[in-house]
Design a protein that fits this description.
With 652 residues, the chain is an alpha/beta fold. The protein is built from 19 helices and 27 strands. Helix 2 packs antiparallel against helix 11 and helix 12 runs parallel beside helix 13. The longest helix has 21 residues.
Amino acid sequence: MGLGRPALALVVAAARGHALCWTAEQPNCDYALATLATKPTLRELELFLRTLHRFDATRKVYVGTDSVASNWTREQQIHAVIDTPCLARYEAFSRNWMKRQRWGELTVWTHLQLEKTTVMARALDDGWSGVLYADCDVVWLAPLPSVGPGVLGVSPCLCAPRVEARYGKYNGGHVFARSREVLAVWRNATRRSRYFEQAALETVRTVFNESAFDLDRRANVEWLNLLGSHSFDRRDHTMNLTVDDDGQVWWLGDRLLSIHAHVVPSSNQPNFQLSAVARITAVLQRSLILDDLCATHHLLCASRAPCPVAAFHGTSRTVHIASFRAGHGDAASNYYHFFFGLLVPFLNWLETSRPLQGDAFLLNEHGVKHKFLPQLMRLAGREKCVQVGVVGASTHNGSDATARHVTLSNDLDWSILEGPSPRRVRLPEWGLDWHLYGCGFFSIEARRELAQRVDVASRTMLRACTCAPEPMAPSKPRLLFVRRRPNPHNTHQNRSLSNFDALVAHLHAQSWSSAVEFRVVDFADLTLCEQACEAHQSAVLVAQHGAGLANAAYLRDRGRAAVVEICPKSMWYKSIFQCLAGLRGAHYGRIQQTDIHGPVDVAAVADAVAAVLEVLGSPVDERNRYPRPGGHHLRVCNGRDRVWRAPFDCGY
């Protein structure tokens, strides 16, 4: 490369050759960006766009995509991009297969890499004076630098001679071009390259020698620049990567503009690289782009302690797969059926599996678009430092799941599914929303088991959401009133309370009102964590029959909380929330509403609230704790589909 093993001072001095582009009007700043992205790299692409937007919100970006990445780029609202769907023909092939198989003179992998020139050519055809290609695992740390006036810009490896001899003197993931001629020479030189398209840049640099320049060396720093085995001077520079009090990242005495590295190592990444990757991630966790990192790789930003990067490396992790189904409702959009049909059984599965950090958990949900599940995945994954994803496998138990089946993931690297990693496949089962309809028939043992499952889920969520602990001696018990708005689009479960405001005012006028704290919420406006914390901090939950009462699972146990349900006459036969209150050891009262959109007797509700306030802190009356057998109690444990077995014996 001509640098040999330069002194540290020489490398630092060489980095200061380009001004930062604070505006596109600055000299040599008016250029486009290009990158490639496929389904497995979407998290990296998101971080690429988020960090770019932080420092350069108007930079035009061209993205070469496969079908999944193409859909994502069109829907995302992070940064304006121009989608170039040129990778769809590669998406059915694995990386290893593409490196072995040839299309003509070149391997399939090389053809894929040369699609960089396809995207760059599109930018030039659109009239840009130049285009900078950057791999999508680049993390931007500052405004982009200006470029030289020449037609070709390359990024020197700054690595050991033996590394250059094998992989090339310049990085194929950071290249600038001003003409199609440069791209044509690059493609042609690749046919004789010793290492894919990357080593071919040496030939391209020679061809355009008089009009070529080195890109700013403060950009595109990689793991290999840090390790003594690969660095330019054979010294370890891992600890030279630092972050200052302002969140700016520094290396070898200068502020870095970008880092080129997987912030979480992939499964096929060698162990010797882990120390450098871990250092890069640790620095980013204290840098200016922390919010962007947390938005895309939240497991690295857990509120109590970030999950260790090393936990997500290698193929020794266990893959856990399970199928849960709501008994007779829609867990994708209905909060009650989501809560007891998916959240409770999933969190119990997570708890009883005793996972190691880095394990993967897959829900076989057949590609259903969920409203609440993404939040649960993030919380559960963060709590246990595990990956959580959703697959649409063809079998009932999801045992045939592969990486291409993953339709919704919160995380990092699903190549674990392509390797020999051990799998633990759980038999399918109905969700507990089904069982709450039948607890009037349950044996004592079955009720105890169901109560334990609800308690495990409740404690896990409260811990993951870091809800404030309940006060040891609260001065005033909180009354939480849940407002339910009419939904004209929901013809099946549409309900409301026409005199809700009058009811709240009437309760405020009661003689005991000064001894309690009143709070009114609409759960539809709150996140999973906000709902959990609101319910847990309350002593009495007052709500119309509906999904919001599922949050009674977060109430305090042993008679320290109560539920007052306002139930329409047409739904009086449904006793699910009396079951739930009984399982939590909460006092329970119920007032009838004549019509699903009509008023309720405010005096009757006030009497019910007064009654439960009087018994708060005392044991629940066991005679009326659960609904009596009869009425709307479904025999659910021996369901029609024997594949979906019950999680426990209901006792009948």
